């Protein structure tokens, strides 16, 4: 009787020792120190050029922006914002808006840069440099096109009817404190400039932002509408671009749809 009880007891004691040893060698990680794995999505490179038809240094940057878009059509999202502070020297840029000057000022405040300048290129809302610097631009494109994004945005049911563009959107990933920036982009326009620093020149501008709106991402999906401004002509090629923008102005996703 004694042997039958003793053998199982030793076996139980041995198993207990093994369990205690395993618990001892397994590191204990406090809950607040455990790594939280976040979802990531395919990379995007959003290039925002702040430019003006009144700035003699800007045309090379406009050309460079378009070159980057054509070289990386799936990854690069090109936006050209025409600012209004060059208008005072005699030529009023027809695409310029004070709200774009404010947008640039907000970026430079983030970058702790003292003032606005043209041409200025901003990459994914995270950093800036002189927009005509080709070496810098393609170095940054190569870097950002290999970094995954925190969000993904999808545009569906995009329809242009009369003077409006209707669309539906959905966003994947964390949307807390983020906005959806919707942008209407004019593919190209040629302008004969008669005054200012570029007087007597014919400028070909591309990727021109002609309308923009923001939608709070209180939900991951919804509907939106953009008005088509009068400056758009019937034969102009347009693109609708949607960006997910964090409260610190970082851009975390992008999508685009060409309009017929």
From TrEMBL:
Q: Quick check: keyword Repeat in the entry?
A: no
**Could you tell me the superkingdom of the organism this chain comes from?**
Bacteria
So which residues are the signal peptide here?
1-24
Q: Which keywords describe this protein according to UniProt?
A: Signal
What is the designated name of this protein?
Answer: DUF1223 domain-containing protein
Query: What organism does the record attribute this protein to?
Result: Flagellimonas flava
């Amino acid at each position: 009787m004694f042997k039958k009880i003793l053998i199982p007891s030793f076996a139980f004691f041995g198993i207990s020792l093994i369990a205690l040893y395993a618990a001892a060698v397994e590191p204990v990680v406090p809950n607040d120190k455990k790594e939280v794995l976040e979802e990531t999505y395919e990379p995007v490179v959003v290039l925002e050029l702040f430019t003006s038809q009144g700035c003699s240094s800007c045309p090379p940057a406009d050309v460079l922006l378009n070159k980057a878009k054509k070289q990386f059509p799936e990854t690069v999202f090109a936006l050209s914002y025409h600012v209004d502070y060059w208008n005072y020297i005699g030529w009023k840029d027809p695409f310029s808006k004070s709200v774009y000057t404010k947008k640039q000022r907000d970026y430079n405040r983030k970058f702790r840069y003292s003032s606005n300048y043209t041409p200025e290129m901003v990459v994914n809302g995270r950093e800036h440099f002189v927009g005509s610097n080709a070496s810098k631009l393609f170095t940054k494109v190569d870097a950002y096109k290999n970094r995954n994004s925190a969000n993904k945005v999808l545009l569906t049911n995009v329809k242009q009817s009369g003077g409006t563009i209707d669309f539906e959107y959905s966003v994947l990933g964390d949307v807390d404190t983020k906005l959806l920036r919707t942008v209407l982009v004019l593919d190209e326009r040629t302008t004969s400039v008669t005054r200012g620093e570029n007087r007597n020149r014919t400028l070909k501008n591309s990727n021109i932002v002609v309308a923009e709106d923001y939608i709070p991402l209180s939900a991951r999906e919804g509907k939106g509408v953009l008005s088509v401004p009068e400056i758009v002509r019937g034969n102009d090629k347009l693109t609708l671009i949607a960006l997910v923008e964090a409260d610190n102005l970082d851009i975390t996703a992008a999508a685009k749809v060409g309009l017929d």
